Amino acid sequence: MSDPQKLYEGKAKILYPTDDPQILVAYFKDDATAFNAAKRGSIQRKGEINCTLSARLFQMLESRGIPTHFIDCIAADRMRVRSLNIFPLEVVVRNIAAGSLCKQTGLPLGTVLKNPLVEFFYKNDALGDPLLTRDRLLLLELATPQQVDRLREMALEIDRLLVEFFASCQITLVDFKLEFGLDEAGQIVLADEISPDTCRLWNQLETDPNRRVLDKDRFRQDLGDVEAAYEQVLSRVLSAIN
Ligand code: TMP
Ligand code: ASP
Prior knowledge:
Mean pLDDT: 97
Distance between the termini: 39 Å
Radius of gyration: 17 Å
CATH architecture of the largest domain: 2-Layer Sandwich
Largest sheet: 7 strands, antiparallel
Bound molecules: thymidine-5'-phosphate, aspartic acid
Strand content: 25-35%
Structural class: alpha+beta
Number of strands: 14
């Protein structure tokens, strides 16, 4: 059934307007998709877990000087966020080789990168979210050169903070995807979510390459125990923060 009020529906979230044009409500769904929605399913309690995790991580990042769109949670699976002009970019940071990096370069899974790698993908479902070069990004005018530099700088700072935070939960942050937007003053602000849907997270207490996976790869690769992995990340993050 269609919801006449919604502003935007993505694969994992729905955005609703509020009385204040500067504020939106993000509703986190239990729906899970992979491979540009070729694979579909649902992960029990995912909406609540991803909303709670994102809220805590956004608060942690804000306290360390990263501007985020997060305002507050109004339900377990709903948060108020600032309305932004979102860049059609997925900014991926990698610390360890996995996923499309291994597929496209032949680097073995688990290769520790000497320096974090920042990559920009074009957020465009019809084109399959292709990897962009800097020149292609500028050609398409998806951001200015100054904005690209700032996005890269912010992504690396967020990586530094998240690697350290997840390490305190005995979790290795392998890689993750960020989205950013511009506020009315032209400031770049972190948006979207930070969750096991958008990060690769490996349990440091497990060495087995399948058992260590605590993120959406369990769903993508049919590894089983998806819900338990999401619950595990939530409980470790909440005990590290509280
Ligand atoms: P990749 O290895 O498939 O390029 O994914 C890199 C990171 O980005 C990984 O942590 C998963 C995340 N990601 C998303 O959040 N959304 C996506 O649509 C894709 C493809 C990856
Ligand atoms: N969320 C993306 C999709 O369905 C892909 C992924 O996370 O693997 O298409």
